[in-house]
Design a protein that fits this description.
It is a single chain. By secondary structure, this protein is mostly helical. It is 86% helix and 0% strand. The protein has seven helices and no strands. Helix 2 packs antiparallel against helix 3 and helix 5 packs antiparallel against helix 6.
């Protein structure tokens, strides 16, 4: 059951996920406040740079939380892996971001209690679209672990 596995993954990695969440929330607030500050001061170019930084933070959050649901991983490795995933699968991550934006627009146009349903669909779609990525990562992690256990790693 995907939902059961999802919550079990968060239970097992609660401390790491809380640290990751606090870092992401803090950075997002700082970036958004800076973007609004520069926008109100007339520095639209700087505000756009901060908006782009916020979009990147959102993509990092999407990747990070899905990785926490699948792997036992440290916070530093979440950010390292997120950079690799963004680099290798940029179109897929952009699609995930656009999916979230589309559902936010739908929720804005049709506000109701259905937002729980919409956000569960978003989470399902993101996990489904990232399934191949995580399958590839699992095989790479298992190959790396096997080579270290045999002592055949290449340095």
């Amino acid at each position: 059951a995907p939902v059961k596995d999802f919550f079990r993954g968060y239970k097992d990695n609660l401390k790491v996920s809380l640290i990751f969440w606090v870092i992401q929330l803090t950075l997002s607030v700082i970036v958004l406040v800076d973007a609004f500050y520069f926008y109100t001061r007339g520095s639209v170019r700087v505000a756009v740079i901060f908006a782009i930084a916020f979009i990147l933070l959102t993509i990092f959050s999407i990747i990070g939380f899905t990785m926490l649901a699948v792997f036992e991983i440290t916070v530093a490795n979440i950010y390292r892996s997120a950079v690799v995933i963004i680099w290798r699968y940029f179109k897929k991550q952009l699609g995930n971001l656009l999916t979230i934006i589309a559902f936010v627009v739908i929720f804005y146009v049709f506000p109701s209690e259905m937002f729980l349903f919409f956000f569960s669909i978003i989470a399902f779609y993101i996990m489904r679209s990232n399934q191949k990525i995580f399958t590839d990562l699992k095989s790479q992690f298992s190959q790396t672990n096997d080579s270290y256990e045999r002592g055949t790693q290449n340095d």
